[in-house]
Amino acid sequence: MSHLKIQSINCQYNQQIVLHNLDLQLAHNEILCLLGASGCGKTTLLKAIAGLQPISQGKILLQGQDLTSVPVEQRNIGFIFQDYALFPHLTVAQNIQFGLDKKSADEKQRILYDMLNLVHLSGLENRYPHQLSGGQQQRVAIARALACQPQLLLLDEPFSNIDSQIRYQMIDEIKQILKQQGISAIFVTHSKEEAFAFADKIALMKDGKIIQSGETDKLYYQPNCKFVAEFLGSCNYIDCYIDEKNRLHSLFGVQQLNDEINLANGKTAKKNTALQWLIRPHHIHIVPNLQGNGLILHKQFLGQYYQYQIQIVGSATLTEIKVQSNQFLSIGQKVQLSYQDTHPILWQTDL
To answer: Can you give the residue ranges of the ABC transporter domain (predicted)?
Structure first.
């Protein structure tokens, strides 16, 4: 049984539907990212799960219980807001213990020190939020949410206020905490880098709909449409076709495919039909070659790698290439491009 199951839910504002017939599942101890541009419905879906946004259709099931008519305070769901929503007039200890009123004094103290140890804030329990760094404030918010032993944790843009130099350290720490505690979580972000680093699965949204969901690497390497492919990274689309002998013809030459190939939308690729081949720029191998099939038109140094814009010899196509920084090449230099892929991602040219 799924830990969380969302069945065909709709949400609307002022009679305008903002979430369209959404279905989603979350397993126990799994972290799911709702990814997408601003205004696509990510936070609305998060609030609907929490009970902060009413739904006009469908069901939300948590461990088999229908939450549709359950009040917010009875859902046993933790929510961490973008600004952490710590109480400025309360100490770290008081913030963490907020919501534990039904516990005995001894139990509250035990939970407090368990949480302080868990989030590495021991010794800071008497400080106030303004005396903490952004990362420490986030740890307090995590501790407060986990102190109530929620069945599900929701996080709205949890890393946006963290300095970029420590952001991925915090992502790793919080992911370890959630895994250690066996907590299922859903978080919202517009950053694909955060999604890849923190999530087990991604649900990519657009205009109130989930376009594709699944394991993070599956969405990157097996996108079901160009929107998904382009949202998750730079793309090259190489003209190609498959002949009757199941050979792929492209600017990289001819290569034999082992199996029948399906298009990204699941349909069978037709023989001798114009197709486009998705290739990520950093997957293409590039070497200097005076007789090569590419000419460097432009380059950018992006820290970990150079990004080259290359014209294919004899074609008007411009292909964006990313290579590691040890490949120092010059504008105007001829290069040879090569790439092998026995399971290419293909689209019809009119998609």
So the answer is: 4-232
| Token pair of 178 as six digits | 């959630």
Cα 25 from Cα 268, distance rounded (Å): 28
Q: Where are the domains of the chain?
A: 4-230, 234-348
In contact, 27 and 4? CB cutoff 8 Å: no
Summarize pLDDT for 290-314 with one digit per residue, the tens: 999 889 998 999 888 888 888 887 7
- Give this prediction's pTM: 0.89
CATH architecture of 4-230: 3-Layer(aba) Sandwich (3.40)
Q: CATH classification of 234-348, choosing from 3.90.220.20, 3.90.180.10, 3.30.9.10, 2.40.50.140?
A: 2.40.50.140
- Please, how many CA atoms are within 13 Å of residue 320, restricted to the half-sphere of its CB? 12
Tens-place pLDDT, residues 72-127: 989 999 999 888 889 999 999 999 999 898 899 999 999 999 999 999 999 999 99
Please report, for residues 69, 111, 225, 300, 308, the alpha-carbon distance to residue 142 in angstroms, rounded to integers and kept in the order given: 27, 13, 36, 40, 42
